[in-house]
Amino acid sequence: MRITVVGCGYLGAVHAACMAKLGHEVVGIDVDENKIAELSAARAPFFEPGLEDLLLEVQATGRLSFTTDMSASKGSAVHFICVGTPQKKGENAADLTYVDAATNALIPHLSPGDIVVGKSTVPVGTAERLAAIVKLGQPEAQLLWNPEFLREGHAVSDTLSPDRLVYGVAGGSEDHPAVQLLDQVYAGPLEAGTPRLVADLPTAELVKTAANSFLATKISFINAMAELCEAAGADVTLLADAIGMDDRIGRKFLNAGIGFGGGCLPKDIRAFMARAGELGADQALTFLREVDAINMRRRNRVVELTRELCGGSLLGQRITVLGAAFKPKSDDVRDSPALSIAAQLQLQGAVVTVTDPEALKNASRRFPELHYQATTETAMERADALLLLTEWQEYRDLDPYDSAKLVSNLRILDGRNVLDSAKWRAAGWMYRGLGRP
Ligand code: UGA
């Protein structure tokens, strides 16, 4: 099939490459000329494991191209909308400017029988509103919502082998003609046994925001338990292992630490609360305010713990922050708890050096006032305290004896609870975890 993908960011670039891998002829469209130039040269404009190899592989087949020209969408049967829906400035609600602009720009190029498929995370009700706009512009085209569940760092495999496919169609019927068309798009994953659910438009939109809200709640739950563990002298990592063995609870997303960040979870729970308010159902989601508050408290807690670790004052203390990305295997620093902590420490008088295997360029753009070092070793030199804030494998693998030779003071705060505390203490380090004795 010929497919258009509008928006070539973390979601769209991966989606375009994966659709070409599934055998389709794909054109990726974005307004950002630099991004298009990079992608056209088979270079990923951001770090995502496996993406660059995939771009090289599919571009060699001639099935994938990129352009800034929206008229290239003409002739595609399926047009995916993959643009961002960031948080509005100064408000909790989602900014739908890009989704609206992408839909409106597509309309003049739609032919009868085409489908427009939204993948962006949007407030419930957006799809019905956009479906009406598409109908006005091209009465024989349809709009569907097909939420995306990919995780950064695993985006390629999550797209090629998703754990479920959700199609939102007007009326929610399996017999909707667009269902067949989308089944052709996803023929590969469907044949491999991926479950597929057909829902009405509002349910499909809600599936995504509900899933992200549940994940955020799970993380804040365990971080609330970490607060209690600290007060009671208990160990949250053992607590998580033990409750996680109950398969109704499950161990995944129960890692206590500095909390969640990124371009999705924080803004999605806020947009969900804002939308619930508009719908007169705000009470249903007031618990998400607490989820958000617990999450933000983690960052302050780390600043306080670092102060304690440094003997009561941060002034002039050389702090090395290991990790800037919001999570490992990503260069994304949007709402990164690691960077936010680094900036707070610097504001309170510490001399902060940040290192990260992939995210330094993005980090220094966002917080130019921090110091950056490209290698772990140089970043650690003469440090008064190390803070492990993003659990990249190379930081998990650090050797306490080798590290001791580089720093000025043997102090480490493990913001992700991934180090063996006994091993670090045995090597002479003052070790602090979060929610651990
Ligand atoms: C999240 C969802 O997991 C995806 O399913 C969804 O498609 C995506 O948002 C989206 O809406 O586009 P992502 O933001 O890539 O994916 O990252 P996650 O793996 O969910 O991690 C989010 C944050 O939670 C990270 O900062 C991570 O460090 C933190 N986290 C995760 C914890 O603090 N503890 C955990 O146990 C797990």
Structural summary, described in words:
- It is a single chain.
- By secondary structure, this protein is α/β, with parallel strands linked by helices.
- The protein has 2 domains: 2-199, NAD(P)-binding Rossmann-like Domain (Rossmann fold); 200-437, Rossmann fold.
- Helix content is 43%, strand content 13%.
- The termini are far apart.
- The model has no long low-confidence stretch (mean pLDDT 97).
- The structure holds uridine-5'-diphosphate-glucuronic acid (UGA).
- Uridine-5'-diphosphate-glucuronic acid binds at residues 121, 148-152, 212, 215, 219, 253-255, 257, 259-262, 264-265, 326-327.
Q: Mean pLDDT, nearest integer?
A: 97
Determine Rg (CA atoms, Å): 23 Å
Head-to-tail CA distance between termini: 57 Å
Helix content: 40-55%
| Morphology | globular
Ranges with pLDDT <50 over ≥5 residues?
none
Report the major sheet: 6 strands, parallel
Number of helices: 18
Number of strands: 14
What's the CATH first level of the largest domain? Alpha Beta
Q: Might you state the CATH topology name of the largest domain?
A: Rossmann fold
CATH architecture call of the largest domain: 3-Layer(aba) Sandwich
